[in-house]
Design goal:
This protein is mainly α. The protein has one domain: Major Prion Protein, CATH 1.10.790.
């Protein structure tokens, strides 16, 4: 391999690594916002875990953050305003990214 090939491989590996960390961070954000919403709705622990898995699935299958927010707002009704949901999602994502950068985020559920 040439130096150029080595650099290319290193950049590709970093890209893949960064993408994996972002995926974990977003899934962690979804888990935490789902547990928060589940608590507001009075769900049991088992129901909350199922709800978190559903929120993570919606993010993956239905279009990302916008789909998650739509689902949360529909489920929460008047319990919390959209601005609060978005604020918490941002906080949970920032926290998850920090954990991922420190190597503390390994899995989601």
């Amino acid at each position: 391999m040439t130096t150029f090939d080595d650099r290319e491989a290193a950049y590709e590996a970093k890209f893949v690594h960064d993408a994996e960390l972002e995926f974990l961070a977003q899934a962690s954000r979804n888990k935490h916002i789902a547990f928060w919403a589940a608590a507001l709705m009075g769900m049991s622990a088992e129901e909350a875990v199922r709800y978190a898995k559903d929120i993570i699935r919606i993010d993956l299958e239905a279009g990302g953050e916008a789909a998650v927010i739509k689902k949360l707002l529909a489920d929460l009704g008047d319990l919390r305003p959209e601005a609060r949901v978005r604020q918490l999602m941002g906080e949970f994502l920032a926290e998850a990214r920090e954990k991922a950068a420190r190597g503390e985020l390994r899995s989601v559920l």
